[in-house]
Structures are given as C-alpha cells and as structure tokens.
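seq as requested:
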Amino acid sequence: MVRASVVICAYTEERWALLVRSVESVLHQERAPLEVIVCIDHNDALLERCRREWPASRDDAPIPVVVIANKYEGRLGSARNSAAEITHGDIVVFLDDDARADPDWLDRLLAPYDDERVVAVGGAPLPEFERERPGWFPVEFDWVFGCAYDGLPETRAIQARLIGANMSVRRTALAAIGGFHSDNHDDMDMCHRLAHVFPDEHIVYEPTARVRHHVPRARTTWHYFWRRCFFVNKGKVEAFRQMEEAASLSADVGFASRALTRGVPRALGQAFRGDPSGVGRAGAIVAGVALAGAGHLAGQGSLRARQRRARPHVRRAVSPQMEMPPPLPRNHPRPARRGRGTAKRRDWLR
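struct tokens:
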C-alpha cells in the first residue's frame, strides 16, 4: 500500500481560518497520511504563526505537521518544490490552503495507484461559495475558481490535466520531470511533462476524491471572470513554449468545442424553459471562449516580440515565472516501467 505526504502551501494570513480548516481536514482522514507539510510562501508573520500552531516539538501528534518556508524566489510552483524535497511518502499530494477535504478524500485519491501504470491522480475540487453562485456564471467555467467544471468525467477516467487544488503524483515521477517548472501553470506543466516522459503511463481523474474549495465573493464578478479567461490563456503561451515537445493544445481545443456545442445550447434551452439567467450563461460561455482565444493570440504576439528583441541570443530554458534553477534534479533516471520492477524509493530530492 502506498504512503502519502500531503503538501499545503499558503501565502497570506487573510486565509488563516481556511488554512487551519484545510490542515485539520487532512489530519482527520479515514486513511491517514504519513505527514503533512505546510510550506509558507515568503510571509514571515504567517510562518511564525504556523510554527506556533503546529510546533515541531509536539512529539505526541499521531501525524506530524512540518512547517517550512519556500526557500526559492518563485511563488506557488517553487513552494511546492520546497515541500516536495522533504517528503517521505511514495505519493506527494497537493491540497490548496483554502480547500477542505472530505473524510474519505485521501483513500479515494490513492486508490488508483494500485495500478502501477498510474503516475498521477487528481480529484474534484467542488466550489464552496462565500455568497450565492451568480446565475450568469456557467458551470463550464468553474475552472476559473480552480474547481471541477462541467465536461470533466463523472467516473474515474484517464485525463490530460489535473486541477492543482486537489492532485497527487508519484514522488519518483515528480523528480524525473525536474519538479514544477512554472508558478502560474504548475499543475498543467506537471501533467504535460509527465505525459511526455511517461507516455505509457496514466494520469487519472478520480471525481469521488472531493474537496470543498472556498470561492470568495470577489471571484464571482464579471471583472474576475474576464481577466482569468484572458490572462490565464495569455500566460499559457509562454508555459507551452517552456514545455517544448511536451506542450499540447488538445485539451484547450476540446474544452472550447464542448463549451460551445454543448454548454451554449443547454443554457439557451434552460432559458427557453423559463430560466432567464440561461441567456446570461450562454453569453458568458461565448465571451469566455472568445477571451481565451484573444489571450492566446496576445500571448503569441508578446512571445514573438520578445524573441525578436532577444535575437541572436539563445532562448532561455527556464520559465520567466521561475527565477531560480530547477530545485529537483533533471537528470534523475526515470522510474522503472511496469513489468521491470518498481523503482526503489530513495531520498534523492535533497
């Protein structure tokens, strides 16, 4: 049976109550983790508060909670790397600091690893709204909140990408791809690199592994919606460039196609049957897809402009979001394939 280390990264004291709730939800799992790593991202006050809440000297704790600081200059991706380096579990699990795990979450998230071909597993972060969900907001765009969205499988299935608020990966595989290379698109980057390095192995989505992801009222506005649709997809262009051969737009194209061909007719049908907000949802879907496309084009334009200014210099090999050398070794040998034995776990991350 695999053992799991759970990593929770945090950066602001404004979400203190949510962070405590998140940690407590992990400590009360039906299937206990090996350890919980709380990594604080460049916030000394929050770091000291966490050390007081979960002191290292507490030897009577059945599940150790280890509080560390992000030792790299980057943000979320590098904080996750800082934590991954000190984990001891076979599986590294990532949970957002504003997400509360269901009691059976870890058990369901780890179950697919019984198949040695499975290299990463993600669960479903379900939105927990601070205020009522806006009627115009389409469920197809719940990814804007970092949540599971309409169009994802309803049963366990192989998936191209996982959602960073609720995902896991074999520790050896994370090291083999050099850890996280991106701060803003760390989950997407990880999944693409895994698929490229391990083409015969599977990334699995397990929708019954649920967490409740807090959605503050500020994220339920049109302003937040359009900016996320545009700027997330603008940033993906640079992230894809850094992935090189591992990059693929197939998941994005598939999402846009499903949203337009299924989501829009459904929303209009709901409007026809007496729900006037259906018109707003249909419009938001069309606008969201258009904004995503515009963001992608803007990102390509920015990339071409940078490339022209940089000539004849050599292209940088590290994402501009990550201003430090990759903290995990890139040249680590790939874990053994199924049928050739299982790679023995070693403390090679340090």
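The two ends are 24 Å apart (CA to CA).
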